[in-house]
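Dear U.,

Please find below the material for section 3 of the report. The protein was modelled together with flavin-adenine dinucleotide; I have listed the sequence and SMILES used, followed by the predicted complex structure.
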Amino acid sequence: MNSEVQHFDVIIVGGGLVGASLACALLPMAKRHGMRIAVVEAVPLPSLASEPYQPSYDARGTALSYGTRLIYEEMGVWQALSERVCAIEHIHVSDRGHFGTTRLHAAEEGVAALGYVVENHWIGRVLLSHLQQQGGEAISWLCPAEVTAITMAAERAQVTIHHQDQQQQQQLSAALVVLAEGGRSSLSEQLSLDYQEAPYNQFALVSTLTPGKAHAGVAFERFTAEGPLALLPLTDSDDGSHRCALVWTTPDELIGERMDWDDATLLKEVQQVFGYRLGRFSRIGERYCYPLALKQAREQVRSRLVVLGNAAHALHPIAGQGYNLALRGVADLAERLGRLHQQGEDLGQLTHLNAFVEQRRQDQMRTIAFSDKVMKVFAEPRFPVQLVRDLGLVGLNMFAPARHRLARAAMGLDGTRARLHGA
Ligand SMILES: Cc1cc2nc3c(=O)[nH]c(=O)nc-3n(C[C@H](O)[C@H](O)[C@H](O)COP(=O)(O)OP(=O)(O)OC[C@H]3O[C@@H](n4cnc5c(N)ncnc54)[C@H](O)[C@@H]3O)c2cc1C
């Protein structure tokens, strides 16, 4: 055990997409006003300097909303990120075996793209490069190191970390701890955080495939009796093959069988569900599966603690909103902490943190309800509901103001958000 306690203003537990984004968002304050930040990440980092980045068939992708682009621009990372994003110019929603279809178009909304699809590896690489190149002494990146305990005291929070490479424990302290560990570690249990959780009894089967025709920037969302199937446009691979990210919602009882199919069978089955709008599918990469549940922490702040990202809320991936929602939380928190730090306030004081939760409440409620309701309405097999939803899709397709509202929600532009401090 290293007996020396290192002190910080903010300790971020987890350097995944959300934790690394928060560190990037706080960086200007850290550099300009001496805010001391530590990020503790359990998984060793890939060496950034190693090989040139290659688009992969084995990587997972995320749909970023247009609103997320605006946040990344303020953080100063969009330019680098945009090198490998694929613009979503159109969204095509259909109901398999029924007549309802609707389409959203970027041009109709007066934007270049409704959103962007990007490999998670690339987002991670851009955020970490930014921190390494711009962070200097301002950010302490402790990795590979696992947070094993968090205890709250009146004046400061105490964090115990285990350095995996040195087999050594260390004590840190901070005015504020941000829990951004994805909600899968034992820390939330240790802290007795209470969650509201409803399983969907489904898994997301995720992979990358090659369609016969170019996707032309169209994101497809196809609802079926068993659950939705999304095909999202990706950048072409280096050999020029087209690529789409597949997210296939699969009932619990079928996931084992589908994960065991050989590639040819999987391609054939996906083709049957999706049809031939993108020609014949020819190649499929590594597949991954994730159990799906709607999960939300009832208590997202405590004195000296904020819970963020998947640790605070996990959504159905159908509408591609989980990370986009989390990033709006990151932006609001960074702006608030920057302001409080400049005013010499205690960052961990509960009244400040309660104000943050209040600021986030509406956006969280609306986004979670949107993802959950879409999922449930399209899962409903009863004829009247089916008919109403298909009429709804047709109506949306014909009625521009309703389409506009849906497009604004998909773009993450239907709420208000503070601008980032120092941007
Ligand atoms: C199939 C699927 C598709 C999705 N598609 C989209 C989409 O298109 N658009 C969208 O907006 N969202 C999408 N999401 C949601 C998105 O993936 C999540 O919101 C996002 O990954 C959450 O990031 P996070 O940083 O909170 O958690 P994570 O990515 O899980 O990161 C947590 C990090 O904490 C580290 N960690 C854990 N425990 C400790 C510890 N004790 N000490 C130190 N470090 C620790 C982990 O190593 C990890 O790096 C999707 C989700 C799924 C399942």
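For the text of the report, you could mention the following: The chain has one domain: 2-197+293-410.

Regards,
Y.
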